[in-house]
What we know:
globular; eight-stranded parallel barrel; EC 2.4.1.-; TIM Barrel
Amino acid sequence: MKTASNLAFVAAAFSATGVAAAGTPVLAPRASTTLTPITVTGNACELTRAAAFYQGTDRFYIRGVDYQPGGGSGTVSDPIADSAGCTRDIEYFTQLGINAVRVYAVDNTANHDTCMNALEAAGIYLILDTDTPNYSINRADPAPSYNSVYLQSVFATIDAFANYTNTLGFLSGNEVINNVTNTNCGPYVKAVTRDMKQYIGSRGYRSIPVGYSAADVDANQGILGQYLNCGSDDERADFYSINDYSWCDPSSFTTSGWDTLIKNYTGYSIPLFMSEYGCITNKRVFTEVSALYSTEMTSVFSGGLVYEYSEEGNNYGLVTIDGTTVTITDQFTDLKNAYANTTNPTGNGGASTSTDASTCPAANENWTPTNDDLPAIPSAAEALMKTGAGTAPGLSGAGSQDAGTSDNESTGTATAGSGTVTSTASASGSSSSKKSDGAMVAALDMKVFSAGMVVLMGMVGGMALL
C-alpha cells in the first residue's frame, strides 16, 4: 500500500506514457511490472485454487472504493480514460490508503495507459465490470440478450485491460439477479463467467480472475454464491463478491448480521469480498472497517470496497468534485482514519483451505434453475476465441439487448464439464438497513447513475439504477 510520498512516481508515470490515436485499442503489453498480479491460487507458481486472493505468496486484502465520477449526470463516462480526472483523484486515493478501485463501465475503444500506469505507480489495482448500459444481459428477458454482439463487447473490454498487471479481476455482472422473480437469469450470468474465463485462456492472457457482484438480497444471495461455485472448473467463478449495506453505525458484528454472513459462507472455497459496503441510514463513520479486517471476518472475506468515491446525488460520496476541485467530506476523513487504524491479520488470516466446488442448489421458491445446464456459447462468439474480439463498440455502440438473431444467439445447452478453460500464461507474466431495491429495469445494476436515467433506459438499457 502506497502513501502520498508516491505521488512523484505517479507524475512520472503520466509524463512517460504515450497515448494512442482516439478510438484505437492498444493490445500489446503496456504496464510496467512494479505490482505483482493478484491470483487466486495461493502461489504464483501453482495452479491450485484458494479461498483467498494472493499477491505472490502473501494473502491480499482488498481495501478500496467504488469509482465512477460523473455517474449522477445520467450519462456514462470512462474514468480510466480521463487522465486529468485520474491524476486529480489518485492524490486522494493515496490519502485514503487504498489498494484497489472498482469501476463500473469503461469505453473499450479508448486508451487507458496513462491512468492504469499511474494507478499502478500508486499501488492500486483495478476491479472492472465488463458490462456497459448498452451491452449487458437484460434481466427482463435474458435469453435473447445473451448473444455474440454482447459477448464481443465483453471480450473487447478484456482485450483492453488484460495486459495491465494491476488489473485484479473482471466482473461478469452486477446485481443481474436482484429479487426472487429473476433468478432465471442465473444460467446466463454463469455462462458469461464461463465464456470470459475461456476467452482469457484462449487468447493466452495471464490468469486474470473472473467473478460476479451480487445484490444485497437475503433470499438468494447465498444460493447464487453456491451456484456460481458449483460444477466443473471451467464454469465455476474464480471469486464471488456481494453488495452489503447491513452495517449501519452504530452497529456491531452481531447487530449487523455479519456473524450470520460468516456462518453462511464458512468453508466457501473461492475468494469472497464486499464489492459495495457503507450504509448511510445514519451518519456513517466506518466502524465496520475494523470488523471487516478482523480474523472474525478474514476467515471468509478478503476485504471490500466502500460505496462510493464521488458524490453523485445519493449522499454516498466521500468527496465532491467540481471541475478540477475536489472537496473531502467528513466521511472521507472517517474512512481514512478507519483504514489507518486497522491492520490486516498476520499469516493467512484464517482463510479456508477448501478447494472443493459447492453443491449445486436445488430449485425452491427463491431459486428457479433446476440443474446446472448452461446455455451454449453462441457460435459467432466462440469463433472469437481464435480470432480475438476485433473492433470494440465503445460506449456509443448500437447495443446488444435487442441484437439477438438466429445467427448470434445461443442454440442449446452445454452441460457441466463439457467445455474447458485453456491454460493461461504464468500469473506473473505480462501477457433492513439496506439500500433500496430501486427500479427494476435490465441487468447492469450500476447505482452510480441518477434516477432520471432509469426512465430514459426503460426495460432495455441494461441497468437497474438506485
